[in-house]
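Fig. S4 source data, part A: sequence.
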Amino acid sequence: MHRRALSLSAIIIFAGFVTMTHSFITAAQAAPALISAAENGDVAAVEQAIKTGSALETRDNRGRTALLAAVHGNHIDVAQLLIDAGADVNAMDAIDDSPYL
């Protein structure tokens, strides 16, 4: 009986870990998708990401936020969406560039 209870506890802990890991991976994948959408000027995808609560200040491997990616691509409409949603215009990337600059 004790062994069965221990096995059940292990299964519950493992299931919680898998759920938590899946949530982390999903959130981690959403941020690069937002940055990619902003970089490509995809207004609809950026709007959807904002509605679903994507983190606006997440960075890519160059330290860019979605707003900085939009500004670098000269996607004014996407940049305005991100600013209206609260994106930081002073957030600097790895080379100290910012959307404001």
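Fig. S4 source data, part B ends here. Confidence is low (pLDDT under 50) at residues 8-28.
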